[in-house]
Predict the structure.
Amino acid sequence: MHHAAALRATSRVGAYRRREPEHTALYAVLQRELETFLARAAPEERLPAFIERELRAFLRCGILSFGFARAHCDGCAHDRLVAFSCKGRGFCPSCGGKRMTGFAEHLIVQSPASNGSAPL
């Protein structure tokens, strides 16, 4: 996206603001209870490894101390830190929402009604 187009897009939707997942109730509960929950599970009741990975990834998602990209605007010389996301599919509300929105957009763009080939 060109600089001018990026500025217009930003002015339409407002300035970027980090979502701060560490201030949510879900994050607080999971951060406080995950290790206890995992330790108390009997061996036959252990969560599958992919679920444990997803939960741990959620605790790193959007947290600047776990990694970020720096975005710089040459026009105003402003820098913005954008935290890395977990890109989770099942547990993270932010990443799951992004994925769902992207898929819905794909369905709309690819639907027969959108390209004029379906009868109304």
